[in-house]
Design brief:
heterodimer; A: alpha/beta; five-stranded mixed sheet; B: five-stranded parallel sheet; disordered N terminus
């Protein structure tokens, strides 16, 4: 656990910077494309690798276009910015400059759904994972702890397919390695409902389900979703707790369980624009994603008759 | 699939300028198949021909060579002349031209790099080629491939898309010297470019040449007129509606 305790004080973003800096030094194929965000953290790497550390300024369309061009010449680009600027602002470049060209890249975001709550709607990106679901063959990693970041990033860069890493300031108390496939964290025995918590939602989900007949499984790789693991663990009741738009993985779960009668509760960030600031913890509460809110949803789902009393 | 020798013979026959018309006129007619072509098809033909006949270091045998020049067609609707030139130079069999756009055809109304040998990018949505070209130029340089040059063809109306201006400013600022943009200016931008297309580039540090888009010798001089440490733009001016 020495390594884990060492990185515990680093943020996911710190781990991304450190690992990417190392990858630039280790592999002449690795390139990093920035649009000013985090550029200061890569200042020394930029001096060492001026041809492969490319900051295009505040130009997100160009950032993705450059990544596509780099990939066409054989490089492995990592592209990084705040989630709304990386995914939403340049969505057509992801669709056309990468996918349509049969080019691939690793996209790494910070900010998540509302990490910088005080910045408001312009810096929120709850819809990012849903947008990747409009494309094909993207792997999506949503780590729940800084110590999960480096391994995910290294494996992703070493592969040749396109992937999205969604980093957050929210997270769980401890990391889980190799949680691409569902990992059972709490086993409530046969017949229990299955709750799947994605990335930073695990600890709140565990607290909410503490004395309920709910098996809790964890994954930090919602795409491709571990369908085989889901089918092996699921009974008739499934609960999704995702740190992005509610219902994002409902389609996947419904398709995986299409041959079985089942009920599904899909929890996540709501669609309403709240027009409120505060902290990320405040937004978790307002979206019902804190332990108390999750518990209300769980008990209502599992005992509908009780909830109305 | 036809053998290369067969294709070469077909090309020689199909591309022969029987009546003094453009060298690819016969192939273009096969693509046209009786349809009406807009002026954009004819406005790009001389630029494409000069590039493939006299400028680009690329051949059917070198379409995957890391050291090849890259040509990116950003205005993907200018595809008829592109396919005709690719056929004339042996990248694709001329037979492909007869079924362009058909259900089994590899040749859409916009090109797809995964379907057509020699096509470097899939395009159609305007404003994507220049960013991809900047990335390609950076990627070649980062790998020590200093001989290849990246050429990208745009239209003056395509410059309305703001993504181009992100790329123009950046490429000029960093002196991306292995990049040449060609803007075919047929005055089709809805609000025009007061002061001329070239000024949008030169103010950002590019070198520029503005020439008659049908003067093949002038085009050749301009397309090979890059020098030093800056990206280069060639503005090829043609008259709208003209069918050369």
């Amino acid at each position: 656990m020495n390594e884990l305790s060492t990185v515990a004080e680093l943020s996911m973003r710190d781990c991304f910077v450190d690992t990417t800096t190392a990858l630039l030094a280790e592999s002449p194929r690795t390139a990093l494309v920035l649009a000013d965000i985090s550029a200061a953290s890569f200042a020394s790497a930029a001096v060492r690798h001026p041809d492969r550390l490319i900051n295009v300024g505040i130009r997100e369309q160009l950032m993705l276009g450059v990544a596509g061009g780099l990939a066409l010449t054989g490089l492995r680009p990592i592209v990084h910015s705040y989630a709304p600027f990386l995914v939403e602002r340049a969505y057509e470049q992801i669709k056309l400059d990468l996918d349509h060209q049969a080019a691939s890249a690793v996209l790494v975001s910070v900010g998540a759904s509302f990490d910088r709550a005080e910045s408001g709607r312009t810096h929120f990106s709850p819809a990012d994972v849903a947008l990747f679901d409009t494309l094909s063959d993207w792997t999506v990693h949503v780590p729940g702890h800084p110590a999960e970041v480096s391994g995910l990033l290294r494996a992703t860069v070493a592969a040749d397919t396109s992937a999205y890493l969604r980093l957050s300031t929210l997270g769980n108390a401890r990391p889980y390695a190799d949680a691409g496939e569902l990992v059972v964290v709490r086993d409530a025995g046969p017949g229990a409902a299955l709750l799947v918590a994605v990335g930073p939602m695990l600890d709140a989900a565990l607290a909410a389900a503490a004395d309920l007949p709910v098996t809790v499984a964890y994954t930090h790789r919602p795409r491709p979703f571990d369908v085989a693991g889901l089918r092996a663990l699921a009974g008739t009741e499934v609960i999704l707790v995702e740190p992005y738009l509610a219902g994002t993985s409902a389609r996947v779960v419904s398709a995986a369980l299409a041959d079985r009668p089942h009920r599904l509760l899909a929890l996540g960030v709501g669609r309403d624009e709240l027009r409120r600031y505060g902290s990320a913890e405040d937004h978790l509460r307002w979206h019902g994603l804190d332990p108390a809110g999750l518990r209300r949803s769980l008990t209502g789902f599992l005992t509908p008759a009780m909830a109305s009393i | 699939m036809s053998s290369l020798a067969t294709i070469t013979t077909q090309v020689a026959e199909a591309a022969a300028p029987l009546d003094g018309r453009h060298p690819v006129a016969g192939l273009l007619e096969r693509v046209r198949a009786g349809r009406e072509f807009g002026p954009n098809v004819y406005s790009t033909l001389d630029v494409l021909w000069v590039l493939y006949d006299r400028v680009l270091r690329i051949a059917p045998a070198t379409v995957d060579d890391p050291d090849r020049d890259r040509f990116l067609l950003s205005k993907g609707h200018a595809v008829a002349g592109y396919y005709a030139v690719l056929a004339a130079k042996g990248f694709i069999p001329p037979d492909w031209l007869d079924d362009q756009g058909g259900p089994d055809s590899r040749l859409g109304d916009h090109p797809d790099r995964t379907l057509v040998p020699g096509v470097e990018i899939g395009s159609g949505s305007l404003g994507h080629g220049l960013g991809l070209a900047v990335g390609s130029a950076l990627g070649l340089r980062a790998q020590g491939l200093l001989d290849p040059r990246v050429y990208v063809l745009l239209g003056d109306a395509e410059l309305d898309e703001g993504s181009n201006h992100e790329a123009i400013a950046y490429a000029g600022a960093v002196g991306l010297a292995n990049l040449t943009a060609i803007v075919v200016d047929n005055s089709s931008a809805t609000y025009g470019w007061p002061g001329g297309v070239a000024t949008r580039f030169t103010v950002n540090g590019w070198t520029a040449a503005t020439v008659d888009g049908h003067d093949q010798d002038a085009l050749h001089t301009a397309l090979t007129g890059h020098h030093g440490h800056r990206p280069h733009v060639v503005v090829a001016v043609v008259n709208n509606g003209e069918q050369a």
